[in-house]
């Protein structure tokens, strides 16, 4: 009987339409979440007066210049694994060399805390000692990364050298490696989260 088949096809049609609607709603929401996501990056060195504030300053500078299209998608901070310099400005020599590149370092030193491990999407350690200390505190290995791993031109280094006991050339070397690494991080985030 042809009439008895009409309701069956109607139910099939409605079911397929419902499934299609759910699919598009799910993917639309996912797309909206990707577009609205804000990523938090924390740079960590020993005292938070040389390498990590430089990384913060360079990253913020890049987000205002070469990567300004994702400026509102990334939040940047820095800290140290010790509190010896808490409240201090970055090292004068680092500030001077950074300023020659148009980068202002106005961060005040602080030490890492447990909340930092929770709220940040990427925690970037400047050297192996920093990395190990963060992991020892309970840092998630999926979040905690080494800065040097994002550097394209490593110049033979397996970590970002601490310039504190060096001269002008050491500070500039650190700045070069850090800028290279910051660009690597941003390109990594753009690819991973489809940032635009």
Provide an overview of this structure:
The protein has 6 helices and 4 strands; from the N terminus they run αβαβααβαβα. The longest helix is centred in the first third of the chain and has 35 residues, at 2-36. A 4-stranded parallel beta sheet has the order 2-1-3-4, sandwiched between helices. It has 196 residues and is an alpha/beta fold. The relative contact order is 0.16. Helix 2 (51-64) packs across helix 6 and helix 3 (92-99) crosses helix 6 (168-193). The radius of gyration is 23 Å and the shape is globular. It is 50% helix and 11% strand. The protein has helices spanning 2-36, 51-64, 92-99, 114-119, 128-136, 168-193, and strands at residues 39-45, 74-80, 122-125, 144-146. It starts with a helix and ends with a helix.
CA(first)-CA(last) distance? 57 Å
Low-confidence segments, given as residue ranges, are 28-32
Listing every helix as H and every strand as E from the N terminus to the C terminus, the arrangement reads HEHEHHEHEH
How many extended strands? 4
Secondary structural class: alpha/beta
Please tell me what the overall shape is: globular
How helical, in percent, are the residues? 40-55%
Indicate the proportion of strand residues: 5-15%
Radius of gyration: 23 Å
How is the main sheet built? 4 strands, parallel
Overall mean pLDDT stands at: 89
Main sheet strand line-up: 2-1-3-4
**What's the tally of helices?**
6
């Amino acid at each position: 009987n042809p009439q008895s088949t009409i309701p069956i096809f109607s139910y099939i049609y409605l079911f397929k339409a419902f499934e299609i609607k759910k699919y598009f709603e799910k993917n639309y929401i996912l797309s909206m979440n990707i577009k609205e996501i804000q990523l938090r990056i924390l740079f960590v060195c020993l005292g938070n007066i040389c390498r990590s504030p430089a990384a913060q300053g360079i990253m913020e500078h890049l987000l205002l210049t070469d990567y300004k299209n994702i400026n509102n998608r990334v939040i940047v901070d820095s800290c140290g694994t010790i509190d010896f310099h808490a409240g201090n400005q970055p090292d004068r020599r680092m500030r001077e060399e950074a300023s020659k590149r148009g980068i202002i370092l106005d961060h005040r030193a602080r030490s890492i805390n447990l909340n930092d491990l929770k709220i940040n999407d990427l925690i970037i350690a400047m050297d192996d000692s920093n990395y190990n200390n963060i992991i020892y505190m309970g840092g998630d290995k999926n979040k905690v990364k080494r800065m040097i791993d994002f550097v394209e031109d490593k110049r033979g280094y397996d970590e970002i050298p601490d310039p504190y006991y060096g001269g002008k050339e050491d500070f500039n070397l650190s700045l070069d490696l850090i800028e290279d690494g910051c660009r690597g991080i941003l390109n990594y985030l753009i690819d991973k989260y489809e940032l635009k």
